[in-house]
Amino acid sequence: MAEDIPVEEGSGNIFKDLGFSDEEAKEELLKAQLGAEIFGMMERRQLTQTEAAKLLGVKQPELSRLKSGKFSYYSVERLMRFLDRLGCEVSIHIVDPEREEAERVMVI
Q1: CA distance 94 to 55
Q2: 102 DSSP assignment
Q3: Taking the model in full, what pTM does it have?
């Protein structure tokens, strides 16, 4: 007979579920998403970590550390610069929930 295993629905942010404060959880999730984009770009461009490190202006062990999920070493801004150096257009959408007007977009 199978045991009933309690299941709890997640919040949609693994870092919040792990006990990070709301603000920290949002930032860590953003860093994880940016890191995933960086490695996705590297894969699509078929760059080795060594080649990408040169392009990004860092040493290869830094990329290895990022790939292993050690996001606390990186700011959101630095990860956005990495994406820019990989040829991505990075934009920020600012939405005021109290206004019905279209959001403002800043391209970096």
Answers
A1: 30
A2: P
A3: 0.79
108 — pLDDT class (breaks 50, 70, 90): low
What band does 95 get if pLDDT is binned at 50, 70 and 90? confident
12: amino acid identity, one letter: G
Helix runs in the chain, H state only: 14-17, 22-44, 49-56, 60-67, 76-85
Contacts of 57 (CB under 8 A, 6+ apart): 85
When divided into structural domains, the chain yields a total of: 1
Both structure tokens of 85 = 């150096």
Q: How far apart are CA 23 and CA 10, in angstroms?
A: 17
Instruction: Name the β-bridge partners of 104.
Output: 94
Domain that holds residue 65: 18-107
The verdict on residue 13 lying in a domain is: no
